[in-house]
Amino acid sequence: MQARGSILIAGNDQKSCDLVSAFLTYQGHEIAQRDDSRSIFDTIREQSVGIIITDLPFLQAIAPDFCQRAKQINPLLALICHESEQNSPSDYPEGDNIFFMSKPLNLDELESVITRAREYQAMIQRNSQADHYSAPHALSSTIIGNSKPMLELFKMIEKVAASNATVLLQGESGTGKELAARAIHQLSDRQGKNFVPVNCAAIPEELLESELFGHVKGSFTGAHANRAGRFEMADKGTLFLDEIGDMKANLQVKLLRVLQSREIEPVGSTRSQKINVRIIAATNKNLEELVENKDFREDLYYRLSVIPITIPPLRQRKDDIPILINNFLSLFNSDRKHAVKGFSSEALDILCNYEWPGNVRELENLVERLVILKNSGLITPDDLPEKYLAGRAHVQLQIQVPTLPADKTQLPEAGICLNSAVEQFENRLILQALNRTRGNKKEAATLLNIKRTTLIEKLKKKNLVYSEE
Asked: What range does the domain containing 251 cover?
């Protein structure tokens, strides 16, 4: 099953369809084209349609059982239906794969709904594949690393997985918090049930409550059918609340109640229902600081952080960089059907000396980009984007340090301000390089083994002015 796919826009209002098609094409989505010579079912099959945006009168005119027939072609198919005043609530089909919008269509809201539909498809696909992995293999297939911080993380995950305790995953963006959450789920006795991720920052505040707890028919405008929330979808499984630090105060109160009572109350309902869900939360923010600033409830923080786990940033596990690169290289070579042989030792050294503010996600994106652009052969420093080449100067300076002449400066008895001395020494070297090259910044930067742009930045920052004597 394929989680993604093209988007088919169908309906009786051709002007509206053309507007939506133009907007989504501009946003980078692949749009399926349908003509009158073939049926909509043929279009779904031939153009690998993953999402249909339409109105219900159009679908019902085609076939009363349209949803069932379409899902036979693509079990992951998602429908985004805009309402019509001519339809009564009984006309609206039910299903986790159907997303409703009111007319006239709000294009910004449409983009958000498409994201939710893609998340639904990805979740169903991942859960259908989870049974193919044994627990130990699932851990090694989701998180890779042999460094000491990662081996300690693996041990913690294995211990935590055996319990039902709430886990709080903390770490910078891109470190792999969702992968850690999946590993905990796959190693637990809940592995045969759903793992349901929710990005609390990606879903608009006014929609998040309904997404989490579900709603009953008639609870608000557009609620034409009962709809299960993410908690209910994760019953007997695991609910992963990502970016929990962005959750608004009113929802924090409701989440705290669920954690205390193990009951949910759908929007518009007066009856609670029991749920059996393990909660794993994640954030790249410092929740303790948010608690101190009154931006996050202290009682909720303690409920979530029964077992806190910190995912190490990539700069603290640089021994894993070659392993991760080889893994991503194999993955993208296979996916793109390319034949990139690997990275040269110099290119690898440069990447190992980079600080990786975007962590593993940044590394993965870089390898994918290089595989696409290189196609075949060996990746060298010349193939790397400019921002990564600062590591090359760092490596060269490390090699040349032993050959520098000894400094005859003596440490005064009263001591010295080290920062000031280093600053003055650097200023003298820069001015000497400019003197030797008669003010040519490119040649001076070469003598100092730094980039010309770096030299210019230093001159501005230090307020140094070269004047030829």
From this structure: 131-312
